[in-house]
Design brief:
Elements: E1 11-15, H1 20-31, E2 35-40, H2 45-53, E3 58-62, H3 71-82, E4 87-90, H4 105-132, E5 137-142, H5 155-175, E6 180-187, H6 196-200, H7 202-211, H8 224-231, E7 242-245
Parallel strand pairs: 1-2, 1-4, 2-3, 4-5, 5-6, 6-7
The structure holds nicotinamide-adenine-dinucleotide.
Length: about 250
């Protein structure tokens, strides 16, 4: 029987793969058989070791995604490493916390640039390749509960992740007939650098935990199954969804 979740022979580009959710997604895709091109600003040694332990080919591309400048180089290096790109995971993202009333233009622009602008133009560049080579592909955006909810003290983050959900739907509509599946994963509250400030705040941390039906924060590895599903042929008829992986948070 063929395995619809098998990624053997595929190449996946994962942004922000040096740590946290991006690293866990890269490892899950590697375990499913995909070669990994890890894109990010920092060293990828640990991710490389974990992916190679899973038997995957691995290549890293050093790039700062706060501007559009490295996009051409990312695409060229990724294609050189894998011949073609089958899967793109737009995971790199940042967050800035401050009251909306005093939020600065810099904290607005920095977050929007990484989370939305570069994500869109990198996706455009890679989708052009996927369309040109006629084999289609899988694009997975890492959204957030703030794609559905307002939150507090993170105005640019909420705007970027709500925007990313809309963009996921738009790109799905434009590219579905070209063989590209565009979907998103909305992680709940996961133990990573992104949530360190929340977890350090005892009051916020226990309020959050009390609302999660499964009764624990997510571990990055909890995202692996959703990522492999959306990267594989098992999801060939799935377009434009924002899939929550949140321990039941949104069901509450
Ligand atoms: P993290 O801070 O550990 O990881 C963020 C990643 O993005 C890092 O690899 C970092 O190097 C990379 N990155 C940030 N700015 C970059 C830049 N300018 N150039 C290149 N790389 C850059 O946090 P995480 O929780 O693993 O976050 C990963 C994604 O998941 C983000 O998009 C985040 O918004 C999203 N997310 C996280 C949670 C959570 O609970 N942790 C929940 C929902 C969504």
């Amino acid at each position: 029987m063929t395995n619809a979740f098998d990624l053997a022979g595929k190449t996946a580009v994962v942004t922000g793969a040096n740590t946290g959710l991006g690293q866990a997604i890269a490892v899950a895709l590697a375990q499913a058989g995909s070669a990994i091109v890890a894109v990010g600003r920092s060293g990828m040694d640990e991710t490389e070791r974990l992916c190679r332990d899973a038997g995957a080919r691995f290549h890293s591309v050093k790039a700062d995604l706060s501007s559009l400048e490295p996009i051409e180089q990312i695409v060229a290096e990724s294609v050189a490493a894998g011949e073609r790109i089958d899967i793109l995971v737009n995971n790199a993202g940042i967050i800035r916390r401050a009251d909306a009333i005093s939020f600065t233009e810099k904290d607005w622009d920095d977050v929007m640039n990484v989370n939305l602008k570069t994500t869109f133009f990198l996706t455009q560049a890679i989708a052009r390749r996927m369309i040109e080579d006629g084999r289609g592909g899988k694009i997975i955006n890492i959204a957030s509960l703030l794609s559905f909810q307002g939150g507090i003290r993170i105005p640019s983050y909420t705007a970027s992740k709500s925007g990313l959900a809309g963009l996921t739907r738009l790109l799905a509509c434009e590219w579905a007939a070209k063989g590209i599946n565009v979907n998103a994963i909305a992680p709940g509250y996961f133990v990573t650098n992104n949530t360190e400030a929340l977890r350090d705040d005892q009051k916020r941390s226990s309020e959050i935990l009390a609302r999660i039906p499964v009764g624990r924060w997510g571990n990055p590895a909890d995202l692996g199954g959703a990522a492999v599903f959306l990267a594989s042929s098992a999801s060939d008829y799935v377009h434009g969804v924002v899939l929550p992986v949140d321990g039941g948070w949104l069901a509450r």
